């Protein structure tokens, strides 16, 4: 995950809950702060990286990632990622990068390009166009067998497999081909109904206190048909209802669905049912976050320990890689 700072409900349901589940199910998990990746789209954003890293890792730990079970580290602290990236770039044909749909979409969203012609894509920086190769190195260096990602990242794992296959074909079997663990993650709506995102200023932060969660969600957009309390609405057209789907029991969903369609409950009453669950869900995180914020050295210590464990695995892989490629190990 790129260090964009504090995390919100979208990160929680789109990624973190799944990570916490995996830490108990998988043999070994590596979760890292993708700080080099920030520079692929924001090469000037250097001032915020450090603080954002600490805030993000604090949230990871608050959500329940356990450094005794998983390896948590900063990408830039394990230089072997960069070395592998360099070697993988030698075996990656440029057309594989130019046709990548996710890179194009991201570049369009950022306003870096308007269309998707090859000519336009070739105006992007070398680092941005090639970030899926860096991502492949991030995965392959741990000889990962599976990578948990959202749907939009699936083309990158496919590329990782293609690169691994090509490398193994040229130099001998060094890497397993990682599987994509696509998780059914809800797209969490923000307060204005668009996707919850830091840049849209529509987020409920994991560190918002209960009063703030209540204040924000009480004002969350609902079905625009319900102008007056007596106007019936349609839950399927209501952004807030998408949060009910995540948080509420089947009985509560049934109750608010009928209440909305018959106008027997108002939007605020309806949202309060969901808000209670959100606050309950966030409260253990606040308790875990408190000691971490009082003593930020614990986060740095987690990152330092993780770095050592990650480096040991990464260096072992690189020894095999260098040997396979014919370089001094
Ligand atoms: P980002 O910080 O936007 O790069 O997102 C990091 C991770 O959180 C990715 O796996 C996203 O898919 C997930 N994520 C971010 N925002 C949302 C959202 N509103 N709904 C669901 N997942 C999200």
Level-1 CATH class name of the largest domain: Alpha Beta
Order of helices and strands: HEHHEHHHHHHEHEHHHHH
Strand content: under 5%
The CA-CA distance between the termini, in Å, is 30 Å
Lateral arrangement of strands in the main beta sheet: 1-2
- Main β-sheet description: 2 strands, parallel
Ligands bound to this protein structure: adenosine monophosphate
Give the domain tally.
2
In terms of structural class, how would the helical and strand content be classed? mainly alpha
List the helices and strands and how they pair.
Elements: H1 9-25, E1 30-33, H2 35-41, H3 49-63, E2 71-74, H4 80-89, H5 94-98, H6 101-109, H7 118-121, H8 126-129, H9 131-140, E3 146-149, H10 154-171, E4 179-182, H11 210-218, H12 239-247, H13 250-261, H14 267-294, H15 297-325
The chain binds adenosine monophosphate.
Can you offer a commentary on this structure?
This protein is mostly helical and 329 residues long. It folds into 2 domains: 9-188 and 296-325, HUPs (Rossmann fold); 210-289, Orthogonal Bundle (Tyrosyl-Transfer RNA Synthetase). Helices cover 57% and strands 5% of the residues. The protein has helices spanning 9-25, 35-41, 49-63, 80-89, 94-98, 101-109, 118-121, 126-129, 131-140, 154-171, 210-218, 239-247, 250-261, 267-294, 297-325; strands at residues 30-33, 71-74, 146-149, 179-182. 34% of the residues are buried. The structure holds adenosine monophosphate (AMP). The site of adenosine monophosphate (AMP) has 15 residues, from helix 1.
């Amino acid at each position: 995950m790129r260090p964009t700072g504090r995390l919100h409900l979208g990160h929680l349901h789109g990624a973190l809950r799944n990570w916490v589940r995996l830490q108990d199910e998988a043999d070994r998990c590596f979760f890292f702060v993708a700080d080099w990746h920030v520079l692929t789209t924001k090469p000037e954003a250097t001032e915020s990286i450090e603080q954002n890293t600490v805030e993000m890792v604090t949230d990871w730990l608050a959500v329940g990632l356990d450094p005794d079970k998983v390896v948590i580290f900063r990408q830039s602290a394990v230089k072997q990622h960069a070395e592998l990236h360099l070697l993988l770039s030698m075996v990656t044909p440029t057309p594989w990068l130019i046709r990548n749909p996710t890179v194009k979409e991201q570049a369009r969203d950022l306003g870096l390009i308007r269309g998707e012609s090859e000519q336009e894509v070739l105006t992007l920086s070398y680092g941005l166009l090639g970030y899926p190769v860096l991502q492949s190195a991030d995965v392959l260096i741990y000889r990962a067998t599976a990578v948990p990602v959202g749907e939009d990242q699936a083309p990158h794992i496919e590329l990782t497999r293609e690169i691994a296959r090509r490398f193994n074909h040229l130099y001998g079997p060094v890497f397993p081909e990682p599987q994509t663990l696509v998780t059914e993650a809800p797209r969490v709506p923000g307060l204005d109904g668009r996707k919850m995102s830091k840049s849209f200023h529509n987020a409920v932060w994991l560190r918002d206190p209960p009063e703030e969660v209540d204040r924000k969600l009480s004002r969350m957009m609902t079905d625009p048909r319900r102008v007056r309390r007596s106007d019936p609405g349609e839950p399927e057209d209501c952004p807030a209802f998408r949060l009910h789907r995540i948080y509420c029991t089947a009985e509560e969903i049934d109750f608010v669905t009928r209440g909305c369609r018959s106008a027997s409950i108002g939007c605020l009453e309806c949202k309060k049912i969901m808000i209670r669950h959100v606050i309950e869900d966030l409260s253990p995180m606040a308790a875990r976050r408190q000691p971490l914020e009082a003593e930020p050295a614990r986060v740095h210590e987690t990152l330092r320990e993780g770095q050592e464990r990650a480096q040991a695995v990464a260096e072992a892989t690189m020894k095999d890689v260098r040997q396979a490629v014919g370089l001094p190990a």
